Amino acid sequence: MALFALMDKSIATRVVRVELDLGASTSVSTIFQQQRLHFQTHHNNHIAFYAGYEPRYDECFEIQNFADAALLIDAATRPTAMPVWDPSQISIDNIKALFVGVDAPGNPNIIALQTFNKKQILDTSKSFLATMIGRSTTFSKAVDVGFNLDDKLVAIIDNNTICFKSFFKLRSVFDMTSYFTAATDQDLDAFSQLPIFSIAQGFDIKNVADTVIRNKITLINQTGLLTPQNLALFKAEAVKVGFPLQTVVVGGVEKITMPSSKKEIKSLLDFIEEDIWVSGISGRRFKSSSKRPI
Questions:
Q1: Which of 6, 213, 222, 260 could crosslink 209 through cysteines, CB 3.0-4.6 Å?
Q2: Residue 145 falls within a domain, yes or no?
Q3: Domain that includes residue 80, residue range
Q4: Angstrom distance (rounded) from CA 119 to CA 220
Q5: 197 and 59, same structural domain?
Q6: pLDDT exceeds cutoff 70 at 249
Q7: Is 234 helix (H, G, I), strand (E, B) or coil?
Q8: DSSP string covering 115-139
Q9: Are residues 45 and 158 both part of a single domain?
Q10: At the top level of its lineage, which domain of life is listed (predicted)?
Q11: Is 225 found in the same domain as 273?
């Protein structure tokens, strides 16, 4: 089984073949086959990707017509046409992912993909190995490049469909901006200046914006519901779920008061993004884990 490495975009050659001896090839084949079986057995309920939803254990996201699938399938289809990786020419630090065609050569259209990070690189500069020449009790300094395989797959590609558990991990490998993009600094400024909000002088949401806040703002913006005309809806929902929505009248117009602390801002965003719900049975308030439409 051929093992391939997907390089980052600083390298013109995006895919290289990692040359393996027979023993290594057998091990790679076994590892990827086992990981593929585990993924398909444990995460066999496929759902369309929806930003803001966290899949349950038995679920995985699915994106059809995934453009980058063709690059990996081409490598599995024509393995000997891929250049052999030379660590002296392309640094191991440039590897983004490792992959194989798990059913190749019979069916090269199914790809098993792992992420690759610096923790998988073996620091041979501090390794000393027993020499195979001369006395076996003599150790020499290791000089070769080494790496570990990850213990699970990040995705499986079947033709042009990609299945995955974590969008965050997948975007460490591929450019996923066409599917979801966290709010930029300009998006944050535009959000806090929406006419539905009243903000304090000197307020700058960028000072407290982490990944969670940026993602939530993107999701909220996609709804298009955060307008002054919908303030009554938000107030009614706040009463329903018991959220302390603060408003103030500015120039005769009622607005939502934007809090100043990071914790309170996140709480407000949770409410606006419908992350709070009340049980119709117990009346208890809960934080929702997802809002995937059904």
A1: 213
A2: no
A3: 3-118+150-170
A4: 35
A5: no
A6: yes
A7: helix
A8: E--GGGEE-GGG-EEE-SSS-TT-E
A9: yes
A10: Bacteria
A11: yes
Q: Which residues contact 243 (CB under 8 A, 6 or more apart)?
A: 237, 271, 276
Q: What predicted TM-score, i.e. pTM, was given to this entire model? A: 0.77
Spell out the SS3 assignment of 63-112: ECCCCCHHHHHHHHHCHHHCCECCCCCCCHHHEEEEEEEEECCCEEEEEE
97 has a pLDDT exceeding 90: yes
Interval 215-231: pLDDT, tens: 999 989 988 889 999 99
Q: Which two tokens stand for residue 149?
A: 């395989």
Per-residue pLDDT reduced to its tens digit, 183-240: 999 999 999 999 999 999 999 999 999 998 999 999 899 888 899 999 999 999 999 8
Runs of H (alpha helix) within 125-248: 167-170, 185-192, 211-223, 231-241
pLDDT at residue 168 is higher than 80: yes
Partnered with residue 248 across adjacent β-strands are: 255
Sign of the dihedral defined by the CA atoms of residues 210, 216, 219, 224, in that order: negative
Give CA–CA dist 279/283, Å, rounded. 5
Which two tokens mark 14? 């995006």
Question: Does 105 sit behind a cis peptide bond, omega within 30 degrees of 0 on the bond before it?
Answer: yes
Cβ(5)–Cβ(145) under 8 Å? Answer: no
**251-267 residue pLDDT tens:** 999 999 999 999 999 99
Residue with token string 């969008």? 167
Is 110's pLDDT higher than 70?
A: yes
Measured CA to CA, the distance from residue 262 to residue 213 in angstroms comes to 9
Q: Per mean pLDDT, which range of 50-64, 73-87, 100-114, 117-131 is the poorest?
A: 117-131
Q: Tell me if residue 241 falls in helix, strand or coil.
A: helix
Distance of CA 277 to the CA centre of its chain: 26
Could you give the angle at which helices 262-272 and 231-241 cross, rounded to 10 degrees? 100
Please count the structural domains in the chain. Answer: 2
